[in-house]
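ok new one. same drill as before - structure tokens go in, u give me an amino acid for every spot. 444 of them this time. try not to just spam alanines like last time pls lmao
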């Protein structure tokens, strides 16, 4: 067999969904050590390739089932082990823990009752009827199989990867701390967080503040249900925990969109144009209007919104009602009409099915996330390149560098998008800003 065919034959028969499910089960990634059809259906060949490899996963492929066992460790000096038996029921994993038992012939003969025993040369697996019942396999104690694979299970996040994450986190922090808005037209970029109630807008602000303060904070109140808490318009300027200086951006938290008592759609243009002051109390029945006691009649460029981030819970995109979809599209049209650039933030990706913590390091290559981005694109019309992924602090009390990298990367993209807004401004608007700066300098 030439090397090309050999490599092709060493590709696992697991589907990507099955592989992700098993990674979630054992909290690790896989490296294929042995495939019977390539290395031979003999115990000697398997033991030679797989012994003393640490935690291992054995996968059996019969004509009707995919099942196997997971051994947390594989050491000749360890004679008694516990193991986890598993079987796929479509994409669902059934499991059965057994042991500790004596370990004989590597990992393929458990206990005196032969709860799990494999005969490679005969291509047969024998299990107790009780085990077969728990795993919903054939009612026969002996199951014939076609293929057998063994994987080494490795940590999702090794030291080298975490060092790379820490380095990237530091680089992003430095980049944002030293960032200056395009042409110095404003001192701080204003980013409006807009989206359904409970999507994670306030949590995203808390997560960003936590990174720069050096510990998890919860300044913005977060609702524990879908009724929402934010009824005020809040503009949050964050001070850097390193030197105490204000960072070059302001996050603006709005009332959430809802089919019933959410943000009044007519408020959106006033927010975008800078007419709405901090701590304005929203009235879902009536938008702010000129003449209101807190209405800003002549907003400056620095009062306006420079970038809008539409925030959605990645797990709830499929449940958006037709009415909510219509509201989001209307809000997006208002944003475009006002000439403001926009992006999408997908929150809660770390709780999506098939996502492991190791996936968060390179999340944009992860198939479940790609599918979710496609869903947002098709359902709401946002460009795929504008859909960013974040992971908020919700119940944690310690910073997570991987979450920080996701959130800082998204924030940097938003600042770059806001730069595009400033660079697109008509000359007369930038001239007004210049006159304002000159007036401030003269007063000093």
């Amino acid at each position: 067999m030439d090397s090309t065919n050999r490599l092709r034959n060493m590709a696992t028969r697991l589907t990507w969904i099955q592989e992700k499910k098993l990674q979630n089960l054992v909290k690790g990634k896989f490296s294929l050590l042995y495939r019977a059809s390539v290395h031979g259906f003999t115990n000697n060949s398997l033991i030679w390739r797989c012994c003393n490899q640490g935690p291992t996963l054995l996968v059996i492929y019969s004509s009707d089932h995919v099942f196997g066992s997971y051994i947390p460790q594989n050491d000749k000096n360890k004679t008694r082990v516990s193991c986890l038996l598993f079987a796929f029921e479509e994409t669902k994993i059934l499991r059965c823990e057994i042991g500790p038992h004596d370990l004989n012939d590597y990992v393929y003969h458990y206990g005196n009752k032969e709860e799990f025993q494999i005969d490679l040369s005969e291509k047969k697996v024998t299990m107790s009827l009780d085990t077969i019942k728990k795993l919903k396999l054939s009612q026969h104690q002996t199951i014939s199989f076609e293929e057998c694979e063994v994987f080494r299970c490795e940590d999702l996040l090794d030291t080298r990867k975490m060092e790379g994450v820490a380095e990237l986190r530091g680089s992003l922090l430095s980049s944002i701390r030293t960032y200056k808005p395009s042409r110095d037209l404003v001192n701080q970029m204003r980013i409006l967080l807009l989206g359904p109630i409970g999507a994670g807008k306030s949590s995203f602000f808390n997560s960003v503040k936590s990174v720069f303060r050096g510990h998890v904070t919860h300044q913005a109140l977060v609702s524990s249900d879908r009724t929402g808490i934010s009824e005020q318009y809040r503009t949050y300027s964050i001070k850097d925990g390193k030197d105490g200086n204000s960072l070059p951006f302001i996050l603006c938290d709005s009332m959430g969109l809802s089919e019933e008592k959410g943000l009044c759609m007519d408020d959106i243009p006033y927010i975008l144009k800078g007419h709405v002051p901090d701590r304005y109390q929203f009235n879902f029945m009536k938008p702010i209007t000129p003449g209101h006691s807190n209405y800003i009649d002549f907003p400056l460029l620095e009062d306006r919104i420079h970038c809008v981030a539409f925030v959605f819970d990645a797990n709830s995109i499929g449940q958006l009602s037709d009415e909510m979809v219509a509201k989001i599209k209307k809000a997006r049209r208002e944003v475009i009409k006002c000439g403001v650039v926009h992006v999408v933030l997908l929150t809660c990706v770390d709780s999506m099915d098939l996502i492991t913590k190791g996936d968060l390091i390179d999340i944009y290559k992860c198939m479940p996330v790609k599918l979710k981005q496609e869903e947002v694109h098709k359902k709401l019309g946002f460009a795929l390149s504008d859909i960013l992924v974040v992971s908020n602090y919700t119940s944690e009390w310690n910073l997570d560098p991987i979450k920080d990298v996701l959130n800082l990367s998204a924030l940097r993209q938003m600042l770059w998008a806001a730069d595009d807004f400033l660079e697109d401004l008509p000359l007369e608007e930038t001239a007004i800003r210049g006159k304002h700066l000159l007036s401030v300098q003269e007063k000093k």
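DSSP finds twelve helices and 17 strands in the chain. and btw The longest strand covers residues 92-102.
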